[in-house]
Amino acid sequence: MINKELRIGVIGVGAIGTEHIKRINHKIKGARVVGIYDVLEEEKKQLADEMGIMFYGSGEDLISSDDVDAILITSIDETHADYVLKALAQEKYVFCEKPLAIDSQSCAKIVEAEVKCGRRLVQVGFMRRYDKGYMELKKLIESKSYGEVLMLHCAHRNPESGLHYTTPMSIIQTAVHEIDVLHWLLQDDYVSVESILPKKQTKMTHTNLHDPQILVLETKNGVVIQLEIFVNCQFGYDIKCEVVCENGELGLVDPHYTYVKHNFSNQTPISPDWQTRFKEAYDTEFQLWVNGVLNHKLEGPSSWDGYVASVITTAGTESTNKGEKIKVMLQEKPSIY
Ligand SMILES: NC(=O)C1=CN([C@@H]2O[C@H](COP(=O)(O)OP(=O)(O)OC[C@H]3O[C@@H](n4cnc5c(N)ncnc54)[C@H](O)[C@@H]3O)[C@@H](O)[C@H]2O)C=CC1
Ligand SMILES: O=C1[C@@H](O)[C@H](O)[C@@H](O)[C@H](O)[C@H]1O
User: Could you tell me which residue ranges the Gfo/Idh/MocA-like oxidoreductase N-terminal domain spans (predicted)?
Assistant: First the structure.
């Protein structure tokens, strides 16, 4: 039984976990964070004390606590599936940061467990669906004023990534955002994916990371998407989405509010990171999630969406390993989605 204010427990309090806690406690109406768990016990216990909230002895303790109505999972990718399944076993609402799991089999298990609960309890952190730019693009595409969509040229660029970041992570952790938002934008399914590792790489990378990479995705309606993933581009956080139609081109502009004209040049800033670029999208995402949980009606990205994205990321990684295009097939979509 959830009271008027949703009591949230957070598992994994690193970069985005900390951002989301601040967001929930200072911006979002109808919810507050009441407890956390992180494997870095000493450090995060101190943080919990500073915030005046509970530090749980394990993720499992937090999930099963009667003082926690809903779980927010912001721990590392590899841990998501297990925590989501544990939350579903308690029939609790759970918001899981992307990816829902690191492979499609684990996502399929989550879908199966949620279907057994008979209703939607899971939302996945695909926040780009709440970005004003992508929402406007969707309306423009659906207006059909520019004819049919023929192809897309996209890029996902991060200024830099650490030594922990590896070749498959470019697909599983980074490209997964486009994989989700583009099929939502086009309302179309993917039929194949091909991963290309260009011979020429940046000097800024290391032995375990091929950077940049390219994914080529094909949809049922025959749209071809070229997606560049470049996680050490140095110059900023740069997200491109150019939609080529029969009678026009539609695209995203980086949200910025100022420019500087000086010395015969006109400069506009570029977002430095994902926190800045998608700030408003995260706020909207969380307010709508809290409203959805309080009204028992989740409408954001589901486990099914997490599964669809992971079928492509799994096939994309297979394509990297085999050096060939991989055809993809989805299982039948259950009626709760
Ligand atoms: N939607 C978005 O744009 C973004 C999503 N993410 C996703 O959020 C998740 C966290 O990313 P970051 O905050 O950047 O990573 P991070 O490395 O800064 O934080 C992860 C935290 O999880 C903790 N942790 C590791 N294993 C754990 C376990 N078994 N149980 C509990 N805690 C554990 C770590 O100690 C650390 O504090 C990732 O899955 C990432 O893909 C991250 C950044 C942006
Ligand atoms: O989700 C995110 C990170 O986990 C990922 O590592 C970055 O590449 C993305 O740009 C960011 O949005």
Answer: 6-126
Do 269 and 165 share a structural domain? Answer: yes
Q: Is the ipTM of this complex over 0.90?
A: yes
Q: Are residues 168 and 256 in the same domain?
A: yes
Tell me, in angstroms, the distance from the centre of ligand 2 to residue 163's CA.
15
- Residue 9: count other Cβ atoms within 10 Å of its Cβ: 28
Q: Is 79 in the pocket of ligand 1 (CB under 6 A)?
A: yes
Residues 289 and 253 both lie in one domain: no
Q: Are 285 and 271 part of one and the same domain?
A: no
Per-residue pLDDT in tens (0 to 9) along the chain, 337 residues: 566 799 999 999 999 999 999 999 999 999 999 999 999 999 999 999 999 999 999 999 999 999 999 999 999 999 999 999 999 999 999 999 999 999 999 999 999 999 999 999 999 999 999 999 999 999 999 999 999 999 999 999 999 999 999 999 999 999 999 999 999 999 999 999 999 999 999 999 999 999 999 999 999 999 999 999 999 999 999 999 999 999 999 999 988 778 999 999 999 999 999 999 999 999 999 999 999 999 999 999 999 999 999 999 999 999 999 999 999 999 999 999 9
**One domain, residues 183 and 292:** no
- Structural domain including 149 reads 131-277+311-327
This prediction's pTM:
0.97
Residue nearest to atom 12 of ligand 2 (CA): 274
